[in-house]
């Protein structure tokens, strides 16, 4: 039940998925809101500090998730051949864009050569800094890739609901409950 099989997601993949999904949505909302704050707002420094800290934790969790994903079988998709192909390409795109958002966020934060303090618990060093216009180019990439990520994730969630309510597949249930008794196929 911890590991995936060819028919179901294990508990580890399920926890990674939902933690990541809620964190992405939360970071998007926080990022959007905090960049509109004025200098004298009490959240002006605190908001970005929380955003960067949670972002780095998500970056580490995503690295672990991708590793776990590569070491596991994955359940086969449901639906027509076209739907399966679209789902597969969509999931790869979600991972790639997620990594782009995380990487560009890191590059904005380390552009000035200072490391990132994660809730004051530990520091992540600035490995890449001083590239020409690093903060503004990474900032543009961060914004557009974050926007692309939430739009793609919304389409992805709609597809999951279509499988659940229209096609009556157990794709959504198996991403929620690792003990669920799957329908015979
Ligand atoms: C999936 C994860 C993330 C999402 C969805 C996200 C989303 C956003 C959004 C929507 C903004 C506002 C951009 C704008 O209005 O220009 C933003 C800003 C920012 N993010 Fe993220 N972010 C994520 C991860 C990270 C990470 C990992 C870091 C750094 C460690 C980071 C650092 C920043 C910084 C420094 C800003 C402010 C940029 C500025 O002032 O122009 N973000 N983020
Ligand atoms: C309400 C929101 C969401 C719902 C209902 C949902 C539902 C699902 C379901 C049912 C699957 C399993 C598909 C299958 O078994 O073939 C899945 C996989 C996946 N989801 Fe979501 N999801 C949501 C949000 C997100 C978000 C925000 C992200 C962005 C990071 C995301 C990224 C992924 C990825 C990358 C996979 C593929 C997993 C893999 O193949 O390793 N999901 N999702």
Q: Give the helix level as a range of percent.
A: 55-70%
Named at the architecture level, the CATH assignment is Up-down Bundle
Question: SSE order in H/E notation?
Answer: HHHEEHH
Q: Which structural class is indicated by helix and strand composition? A: mainly alpha
Order of strands across the biggest sheet?
Answer: 1-2
What integer is the average pLDDT? 95
Strand count: 2
* CATH class label: Mainly Alpha
Percent of residues in beta strands?
A: under 5%
Main pleated-sheet profile: 2 strands, antiparallel
Q: Which spans have pLDDT < 50 for at least 5 consecutive residues? A: none
Provide the number of structural domains: 1
* Count of runs of 4 or more consecutive helical residues: 5
**Distance between the terminal alpha carbons, to the nearest Å?**
20 Å
CATH fold-level name = Fumarate Reductase Cytochrome B subunit
The ligands found in this model are: protoporphyrin IX containing FE
Backbone shape: elongated
